[in-house]
């Protein structure tokens, strides 16, 4: 299957990533990615840019060398109600937001608290993806989260970087397998994210592919493979 889209990518603006936007774009063009989303870390993560960085993204062209460029942000979930660190006045100028739990921004809570945090973030109309919901440091009720994913049209991410054997996230293989089996059971779509922090990882979904194969996960439930699914998730005719 052709992978059309990669929406989880970081530039040097994130503080702990190593490529410029131009390097990301040229790599994406070379790898035939059709739609590239730039989703730098939001201000609450140490090293993240000022909020002005996101407000000014309108200066970046929408299409470059045939590549469609989407402007996004990986926001930080800040509390167990699911509040995030980027306000609506900025989010409405962007194409999408990812919402993620990051240890420097929120201490792990109980299973119930972490689940509430994720579902609360899903209720934010600008949030389209939950980033790496695969980390046992934040135990969560996957049954409830998969149901909420369908209800709010917010995709759960299968994160390629989390699945690296040297990842610092915990229990990822088991958690991602649980998410895939519940999504298959309830016919809920997932999205692959490379979570690239260097240009060479753009469109690298090797780990996502083996885990979906292992789970016998149907291709039609992978958003990255389908133009219609991408447009439906983003609620916009992207391409
Ligand atoms: Zn990062
Ligand atoms: Zn993240």
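^ structure tokens above, recovered residues below v
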């Amino acid at each position: 299957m052709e992978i059309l889209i990669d929406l989880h990518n970081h530039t040097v603006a994130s503080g702990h990533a190593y490529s410029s936007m131009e390097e990301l774009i040229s790599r994406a063009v070379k790898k035939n990615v059709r739609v590239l989303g730039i989703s730098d870390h939001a201000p609450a993560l140490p090293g993240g840019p000022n909020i002005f960085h996101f407000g000014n993204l309108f200066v970046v062209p929408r299409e470059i060398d045939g590549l469609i460029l989407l402007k996004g942000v990986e926001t930080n979930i800040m509390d167990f109600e699911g509040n995030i660190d980027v306000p609506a006045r900025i989010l409405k100028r962007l194409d999408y937001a990812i919402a993620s739990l990051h240890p420097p921004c929120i201490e792990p809570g109980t299973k119930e608290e972490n689940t509430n945090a994720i579902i609360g973030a899903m209720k934010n109309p600008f949030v389209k993806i939950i980033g790496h919901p695969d980390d046992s440091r934040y135990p969560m009720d996957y049954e409830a989260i998969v149901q909420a994913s369908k209800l709010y049209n917010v995709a759960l991410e299968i994160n390629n970087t989390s699945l690296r054997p040297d990842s610092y996230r915990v229990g990822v293989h088991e958690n991602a397998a649980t998410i895939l089996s519940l999504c298959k059971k309830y016919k809920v779509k997932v999205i692959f994210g490379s979570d690239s922090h260097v240009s060479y990882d753009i469109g690298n979904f090797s780990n996502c592919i083996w885990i979906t194969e292992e789970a016998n996960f149907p291709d039609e439930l992978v958003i990255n493979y389908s133009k219609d699914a991408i447009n439906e998730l983003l609620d916009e005719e992207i391409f």
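Residues 172-186 form the longest helix (15 residues).
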